[in-house]
């Protein structure tokens, strides 16, 4: 992989190797558009995405993780600048959180604010981890970014150790932007999630 100022960047490695993003269901243009939007939003991310309701939901998820004494390593998918890691650290310091996002800029914002300890730039559809590597796989407000929600969730579920936790928080009254901005125009289909 390529390291960008100390942050492992698997997306740069894929691009350098000439990987075809389209073969995994993620169009190169969509991913690049999303990364560009993230680059521009990075300085304002906490202000926009840290309302009281979201903080409450993250705190509840952190408490759920902390209640499981065997939970030591967590994968946070779509981690942004580390809001979930802050919540986990507040409830039970010592849990290792691997924070994955497609945006180096947003992750770097979290590193600079000391919210993130183990950031990784990678697409959720192609994570560089072995099966059953994590005690928990979580994500907050990230499912609507996936082109193939069911397929991506199935791959993420494989990363959870037997008996581990798998939890995602997703807005239900969220108006998604049209595809030209890099997001799906439909809400998450519950049938594709329940297929897991």
Could you describe the 3D structure shown?
The chain is an alpha/beta fold. It has helices spanning 10-16, 28-41, 45-48, 52-67, 83-91, 104-112, 149-157, 190-194, and strands at 2-4, 7-9, 73-77, 96-101, 118-121, 134-140, 160-169. A five-stranded parallel beta sheet has the order 5-4-3-6-7, covered by helices on one side. Strands 1-2 form a two-stranded antiparallel sheet.
Query: What is the element string, with H for helices and E for strands?
Result: EEHHHHEHEHEEHEH
Kindly state the mean pLDDT as a whole number? 77
**Terminal CA distance:** 30 Å
* Number of distinct beta strands: 7
Rg over alpha carbons: 16 Å
Strand fraction: 15-25%
Summarize this structure briefly.
By secondary structure, this protein is an alpha/beta fold. The protein is built from eight helices and seven strands, in the order ββααααβαβαββαβα.
Task: List the keywords.
about 200 residues; alpha/beta; 8 helices; about 35% helix; about 20% strand; globular; disordered C terminus
């Amino acid at each position: 992989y390529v390291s960008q100022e100390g942050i492992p960047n698997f997306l740069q490695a894929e691009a350098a190797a000439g990987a075809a993003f389209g073969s995994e269901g993620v169009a190169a243009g969509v991913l690049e558009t999303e990364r560009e939007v993230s680059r521009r939003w990075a300085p304002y991310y906490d202000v926009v995405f840290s309302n009281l309701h979201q903080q409450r939901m993250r705190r509840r998820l952190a408490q759920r993780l902390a209640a499981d004494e065997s939970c030591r390593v967590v994968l946070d998918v779509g981690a942004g600048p580390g809001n979930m890691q802050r919540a986990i650290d507040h409830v039970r310091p010592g849990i290792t959180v691997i924070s994955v996002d497609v945006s180096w800029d947003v992750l770097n914002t979290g590193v600079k604010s000391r919210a993130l300890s183990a950031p990784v730039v990678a697409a959720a559809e192609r994570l560089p981890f072995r099966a059953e590597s994590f005690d928990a796989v979580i994500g907050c407000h990230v499912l609507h970014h996936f082109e193939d929600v069911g397929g991506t969730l199935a791959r993420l579920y494989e990363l959870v150790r037997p008996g581990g936790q798998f939890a995602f928080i997703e807005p239900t009254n969220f108006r998604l932007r049209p595809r030209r901005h890099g997001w799906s125009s439909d809400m998450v289909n519950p049938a594709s999630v329940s297929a897991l």
